[in-house]
Amino acid sequence: MFVQEHIMRILMGLAAATLVASAPPSVDAHHSMAMFDQTSEVVVEGTVRQFQWSNPHAYIQLVVENEAGNPVEWSLELGSPVYLYARGWRPRTLRPGSEVRVRINPLRNGSPGGAVLDVTDMDGNAVGSNRR
Amino acid sequence: MIRKLACAVSLAALAAATPAMADHHEESDARAEVFAELPYWPGYWVSEFQAGTAIGGQNTQVAEAIENGEPIPDFMALRGADAPWTEEGLQRFADVRAISRGRKATGWGFPMMMNAATPLQITITPEQVIIINAYNEARYIYTDGRPMPDELDMWPTTYGTSVGHWEGDTLVVETRMVTTPSDFFHGAPPFSEEAVYHERITLEGDRLVSQMVIEDPVLLTEPWEVEVAFVRDEGFDRMIQFDWDNDRTGFDGEYNTIEMGGENGTAMLLPAIDNVLEAGSAWEVAWSGPMTADGMSVTPEGHLLFAQEQSNAIWRLTPDDQAFVEYPYVLGAGAVSVAADGTVLAIERGCTDPGLNSLTCSQPSALMQLGEQRRTIADEFGDGSSLGRLNDVHADGHGGAWVTQGALWHISHDGETTMVYQPEAFTNGVITSPDGSTLYVTDMRNVMGITLDNGVRGETSLFATLDEDTEGFGGDGMAVDAEGRLYVTGDAGIYVFAPDGAKLGVIPVPRRAITLAFAGADRRTLYVGAMGAPTPEGEDWVPPGGERNVAMTVYKLPMLAAGPR
Known about the structure:
Chain B: InterPro entries: 6-blade_b-propeller_TolB-like (IPR011042), SGL (IPR013658), SMP-30/CGR1_Lactonase (IPR051262). The structure holds two protein chains of two kinds. Chain A is α+β, with helices and mostly antiparallel strands. Chain A has helices at 2-12, 81-86, and strands at 42-52, 59-65, 71-77, 99-106, 113-121. A five-stranded mixed barrel of chain A has the order 1-2-3-5-4. The longest helix of chain A has 11 residues, at 2-12. By secondary structure, chain B is mainly beta. Chain B has a nine-stranded mixed β-sheet, with no helix packed on it. Chain B has a four-stranded antiparallel β-sheet with strand order 12-35-34-33, with no helix packed on it.
């Protein structure tokens, strides 16, 4: 929630109520982090369908079984590859078929997606690293 | 003799060049001296309050400030929230924010690239300073003493025109003719094109500090002074530049969101098949609706065609998923087949649909040629009986076609009908190998191969079996690729067989596929028509009157294999 509060502080001076839902870009992301619920953490486990090593964001497309046993594809957002590289990630750090556990801040709207906090394999070993 | 002469010539050339080279050396020495006096700012510079960004893009400094109860750093001051806007400026600032939801961009632009986490590299030479970021956004700042170009020589650009000079170790830059920054990137301030940007950039210890003063006679009440600074973040060893081409920002009505994959059943893992399908590939929805998309074929330019019985039309589906009626008035359109010469044949099922409850008309089924030479090729068997509910069609390249209806039939260009194969169960899909030497037809869970020699039929044998299908109606639509592999739609998905009948794999499909074709300019997109479709609410469509559900979805898949041309 902190980023959203920060944004509201910035925007209040602008006297425009319509601005509240929109947001400035933050950090490496080219869009606001307000779309993610940063007060909530979710762990999703599944099989990598695709690792999109792309700008302005990389994505892990993870196929996860839902409670009914049906596959659901999660779109898990990472920063840009240049940053991932600096944190030890490479284009083939994840491959189709890799089974991983991903901790995320989920999307606010409940869609199967989120901002990645960290990634581990099924034995709990870190994949890439999270910070320098 | 020739070699001696050549030697003499080159010596002469060297002698002649010597005075000029001496000048050049003097110039080089002078330049080297100037160069040696210039600052050197190596490394990868990241906006100060954004260093340490986590892999998910989270600003760790903001998080730490919150945790420690410290003031939150204004990590993107250049955005202009604190600028002395005029009333008009405030309005434009608000307008840009109001339309920024879900907007996509292709980079940061100027001035925002000077306040982004995206690292900058700064190359200093006596003549110019180049500031470039990891998205290939570059600023060329000329320090060779030239003045700012005349206004008539300039036009507004995303990065503007910059001229600079050195005052000691401070780079002083003036930038003009920048297009309104928020036009390029929605998170940027909406300065007018009359804005002038002044920067004084100095290395202070390990911080690179830029004092900026921005004047905008249109939108600012006074010059806006703002400081941005950079630090060297760790882990970068080179600039890795590639396109900004995967902006998946969406908007859900309240917040931005990620444009999702996996809709309409496409959340599935597909197997890699050598030279056919790459690991990580995924189905995408190309079309869906409450009526059929059956009997697929491809136009010479690579657009998909499908038949829609209920709208009495052959539809065209373009590579960017635009669908429109290509051939209207094809009564009960059941299937379409484009011959190698571009001739378009189609099946009219007339009024034979048993599932729509209310058909009382009596028009016959027919094999039609469409286009300018539109004609009925046949609408009855040799004995005068109806062709019945024709199923699939495959043009024979000689103006006629193979069609399925119970048995497999051949209809010649002049309408003569011949039974080709009497099935054990029933036929459905029909196609020929790309070299025309084999005719394939489904017989429920069997696929039969019939040899063809210049159109003359030879032996019929079992080519392959859909061994993962145990219930249902077995094989339906078929396709071949340029290498002669055969693709058959079944309950388990798309069976892929080598030309010798060996099963190479099965590609699962989100819904039960009944027709397929390779399309796209390079024929490397596999389209399938599958039964069922979701409503806008995401529930599967169910016809309200209890009639047969004819809703279908067309999915497409990027392939390594290509269809024949």
